[in-house]
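hey so i finally got around to running the thing on that chain from the lab meeting. sorry it took forever, my laptop kept dying and i had to restart like 3 times. anyway pasting the input first so we r on the same page abt which one it is
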Amino acid sequence: MDNILVVDDEKNIRTLCARVLGEDQAIEVHGAGTGKEGLQMADDVAPDVVLLDLRLPDSDGMDVLRALKGRHPEIAVIIITGYGQIQSAVEAMKSGAADYLEKPFEHLDKLKLSVARALGEVRARREIQRLHQLQEKQNRVDQLVGESEATRQLRDMIAKLARSEAQTILIHGESGTGKELVARGLHYQSSRRDFPFMEVNCAAITETLFESELFGHERGAFTDAKSAKKGLMELADRGTLFLDEVSEMSLNSQAKFLRCLQERVFRRVGGTRDIRVDLRIIAATNRPLETRVKDGLFREDLFYRLNVIPILILPMRDRREDILPLARHFLNESNLRSHKALKGFTPDAERLLLSYSWPGNVRELRNLIERLVILGTSDYIEPAHLPVQFSAQVPRPVERGQLEETRTLAEVERAYINQVMQKVEMNKSRAAKILGISRQTLRKKLVEE
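ok and heres what got predicted. didnt touch it at all, straight out
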């Protein structure tokens, strides 16, 4: 139910508002005759809209307006003013009032319309705030699930960089490792979180459209430019611009982007006015940019401008301690979405997940779990439910006194390494100590799998 508070020293005005607005069963109207009483009632009933008279017996209506907006900034305040007090109403609008009405009310429909409009604005603001809080919750740094040392360090780095004034960040990582999630974490953990997060996939924009999309254009700049349009850099002002797959940007587009990267100044296509923006630029690549530079496919000067603060996200095969926590996390998510209640994985299924190389990284794992949950009919995910490539990873145990002719020495070594890794719960340092090799050697052998 919507709450309306009428603060006016005239009882007949309070009664009229209660009668007219109370016709809507979804509205409850409260009344107060003084500024002090109105402020107290606002604290008690938390109104959505306040109808406030500018002339009250105990205080100035402007002071009450400022107090209301200070205590309850989300409230919409409609000023009630007498004939000849329009200038005061204008001043009130500058101080945060949503609208003003002259009394006596000659047209009651205007009262209803003004209150309905104010209620709509209040609901819209609350919905925007709810969605913004939901985005913040979904993109918090603790959403980076994993127990490996690499993931813990990544969470710490995101928290530090988000709070910093770092203007340019470059994220390296294979496809599916979660580069966009890291970029969103950097934005929503920062002081820029109340401003836009604009994303552009550089591989999806043709060279001819790149300048217009990024910088915008003026009316008449080209044949189809029937009106002026802001570009993504302008729309992201005071927020974050995320350039995904920046390695795919054409050399022509790189040259245009380079000019505005350092100074954050550009011109729209067809424009003559310099536009200055304050934004954080986060770029992501799934290819080594150093190699692209050597091959002549990426500008060296742009690489150094982007690579101010590099973040490396390791592939899943290099942080196997994260596999099971991520699998359980995705299982819970998929259960909620699909209204299922799968309880988990059998030990054999977990061993298969741990021994798989995950070429598609986290994205492949998430998609797999979602598919298994949708198609699942039992309480637990078993080896038989997994695709055929998982069973091919399983090392078959050698029975005592029997040699398998089909197994090479390398296969036996891999099987033993997997056995030790499972025994120490994927702790590389402990496993290396047991195997009598260095941690770096163990990492290489795991990659070779």
